[in-house]
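Thread title: Can someone regenerate the structure for this chain?

I was given the following input by a collaborator and told the matching structure tokens would be attached. They weren't. Posting the sequence so someone can regenerate them.
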Amino acid sequence: MKRIFFLGVVLISLLAASAQQDSKAKQILDEVSKKTRSWESLTADFIYSMENDEMDIHEKNEGSIKMKGEKYVINLPEIGWKIFSDGETIWNYMEEANQVTISNMEEGGSELMNPSTVFTLYEKGFRSELKGEKTIGSTTCHQIELFPDSPDFEVIKIILNISKPDNVLKSAWLYSTDGNLYGIEVIKMDTDNDFSDEFFVFKPHEYTDIEIIDFR
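Best answer:
Regenerated them for you:
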């Protein structure tokens, strides 16, 4: 699940400030960061995929993410999973079990799972390389590969395809140490939506007979 979470989060885009990055990749990521910082909020629809040829797993699901600052909501309706965070608390809701688990933000998992840390991820153990260009549909993209310096991330590499015309993320692919390939393909992205703070708070009273598991 944490790979799903990360790939939703990575739609928010990127910050590049690490000396470990090559100069061309850093320049591209800086431009993406500059654009991202100008947004008050973000909404994106995407296709999430997980592949494992050895285990014959080939899954694709549509999802969405809405974010304002450190607050976010990720929705994967085809598998019945929603994640809410108001910047302090995380609610993980599974529709099939009608169950929500609650935890504090700092206890919610690794840095790859936290939207507020994705903006400094590249300062904390990833090096980047510009590999060239790739055409996705009719869009020409910069292709950048990220490699972790620490096994703590449980990632072999991440491939980012960034649209050349507008410096936004087109797709991301995460090669995990568990043998799975996780992917995000952006369908649509909007910015500067007007979300209230309450939008990012899970409301148990809206669900009948919900099971609440509070880890705080």
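The mean pLDDT is 80.
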